[in-house]
Amino acid sequence: MEQKRVLITGAAGFLGSHLCDRFIKEGCSVIGMDNLITGDMDNIQHLFKLPNFEFYNHDVTKFIHIPGQLDHILHFASPASPIDYLKIPIQTLKVGALGTHNCLGLAKAKNARILVASTSEVYGDPLVHPQTEEYWGNVNPVGPRGVYDEAKRYMESITMAYHTFHNVDTRITRIFNTYGPRMRLNDGRALPAFIGQVLRGEDLTVYGDGSQTRSFCYVDDLIEGIYRLLMSDYNLPVNIGNPDEISLLQFTEEILELSGHTSKISFKPLPVDDPKQRRPDITKAKQLLGWEPKISRKEGLKITFDYFKSLPPDEWHKQPKEFISNKAD
Ligand code: NAD
Ligand code: UDP
Q: What is the CA radius of gyration of the chain?
């Protein structure tokens, strides 16, 4: 069988690096692309020795040139943590809009299949629960999270337009909160924030009263779902996530129990437009892809906690990323 050549944007990030591993394991030739704005080369360092891995340090909002054949594109480049996208709002809008446009143009030129990483944030602060793909969402376009949510909604629209107008072979996944090794401990998302606080012996910062819910999916389950969606022939959006819903307060209790630590909870103001509830309806993924998550939160949390604990302690104390920006960004 001919070796498939796959481009993964956002390759040095949390999900992108796990996708690189998966496509290498499938025997593909993988091109990772990243401008390292929120990613880290350490996530893909182990791949550089392989003959079937190449890396391009490139900003996907600029024209993308890839010589030779390309079979698949997985467009995962984008800040994903609220504190990241609040600090770089214009780059977030640009990577969702211009970056997606460039990836679609490349897919069209190469006759490649493209899968784009959308998000449960397209549902905003949802008024329908659990969220089915048919729900159009409740997004505040001019609120702080709008830069991410609307970029992803535009991403979905332009992807469908390339599919219907140019016949590009497209897939759209709506990813719900995913966690696991290679997240940045200081990226501000709930799970790494809480684990970092436990490891440093600090109070756990719960925003609001902690009654808001999320449904956390372990990374290996997510990658399997993405792989199956790419291999399917379904063009409309598909939710991929774990429907096991939990309040943030209960989540901190699980982390404290797992770690054996006795840190206190410190309540902080709820960020603007923070969704009150979130749980994927995964009927479509089950029916179309035969997929459902296999790894319980208990198992996934243990693997993730052990991973962060095994990092050198100076990693636990790293400050959040500061971003260099200019007027165009
Ligand atoms: P991440 O921040 O770890 O990775 C994103 C990667 O994209 C980083 O390596 C970053 O440097 C790169 N990047 C950003 N802008 C770029 C640009 N202009 N050009 C090239 N590279 C660029 O985040 P993640 O959690 O791995 O998320 C990956 C994708 O999955 C994102 O598109 C995100 O919206 C989506 N997603 C993730 C989750 C989740 O729970 N992790 C949930 C929903 C959607
Ligand atoms: N959160 C929290 N404490 C933190 C970080 C996050 O209570 O230190 C809350 C946040 O307000 C949200 C939930 O945890 O309700 C999940 O936040 P995250 O940033 O992980 O992702 P989101 O699902 O909001 O995109």
A: 19
If you write DSSP's letter for every residue of 249-308 in order, what string do you get? HHHHHHHHHHHT--PPEEEEPPPTT--S---B--HHHHHHH-----S-HHHHHHHHHHHH
Ligand 1 pocket: which of 34, 44, 78 to mutate (most atoms <8 Å of CB)? Answer: 78
Q: Residue 245's beta-bridge partner residues?
A: 215
Distance from the alpha carbon of residue 199 to the mean position of ligand 2, in angstroms = 18
Active site (catalytic) residues: 148
Check: CB of residue 151 under 8 Å from CB of residue 95.
Answer: yes
Percent of residues, the chain, with pLDDT higher than 70: 98
Is the CB of 271 within 6 Å of ligand 2? yes
Evaluate: CB of 82 within 6 angstroms of ligand 2: yes
**Tens digits of per-residue pLDDT, 239-283?**
999 999 999 999 999 999 999 988 899 999 999 999 999 999 999
Q: For the segment 75-93, what is each residue's pLDDT rounded down to a tens digit?
A: 999 999 999 999 999 999 9
Q: Which pTM value belongs to this model?
A: 0.98
Give the bridge partners for 304, in sequence order: none
CA gap 34, 119 in Å, rounded: 19
Best CA proximity match to 116, nearest among 56, 70, 64, 157:
157
If you average pLDDT over residues 213-234, what whole number do you get? 98
Residue 94 C-alpha to ligand 1 middle, in angstroms?
13
Q: Does residue 243 have a cis bond before it (omega within 30 degrees)?
A: no
**16-66 pLDDT per residue, tens:** 999 999 999 999 999 999 999 999 999 999 999 999 999 999 999 999 999
Residue 208, both tokens: 């609001």
Cβ atoms of 42 and 54 closer than 8 Å: no
Question: Phi, psi (5° rounding) for residue 30?
Answer: -115, 130
* 263, 198 Cβ separation under 8 angstroms: yes
Cα(1) to centroid(ligand 1), Å: 31
CB 71 within 8 A of CB 113: yes
For ligand 1, atom 14: residue with the closest CA = 78
